[in-house]
Amino acid sequence: MSKLTEWAYPLAESLLAEPLPRRWQHCLGVAERARTIALVLGRDADLLEAAAVLHDIGYAPDLAKTGFHPLDGARYLRDVAGADARVINLVAHHSCSWLEADARGMRQELEGEFPREQEHLNDALCYCDMNTTPDGTPTNPIDRINEITGRYGPESLIGRFIRRAEPEILACTSRVLERVAAAKRQPM
């Protein structure tokens, strides 16, 4: 493990494992997905894995201030944990969160505080999150979107957001899979 991941895992565990064990399992699964695509990330592989294990810490009861977990998690990482800025930005913008922020009337706040990371990293984190069930096992983005819609309800803010984000989630996944396929075709 790199220093970044050595720091990220215990922090995420301390915030999620006891109060939200299922969310903790999800984060572990998302980090596992990150390791499966490390070949296309090069030296950013550890960065992505750290962001993956931390991406949902904003759900932790002690951190949930606004009720918008990407913003709450990013603020904690910035203001309390002194995290790497790139990890913070990935957490803030994971899985098309700007669309949810828009639905909540918080997009200007999110984007004003946290710039987006490079597209390939945002794509990669979205891929990892949307290919992991709430219990941390592998899935696919269609089933994951349907699960989220079913859990929150199609007319809820989250249900409407995830359906609005679906084309971009599928595009992120497609771009990551194209990068993985291209990397596997490269001669050794």
From TrEMBL:
SUPFAM superfamilies: HD-domain/PDEase-like. Residues 19-98 form the HD/PDEase domain. InterPro entries: HD/PDEase_dom, HD_domain, HDIG_dom. Pfam families: HD (PF01966). Coiled coil: none annotated. This is HD domain-containing protein.
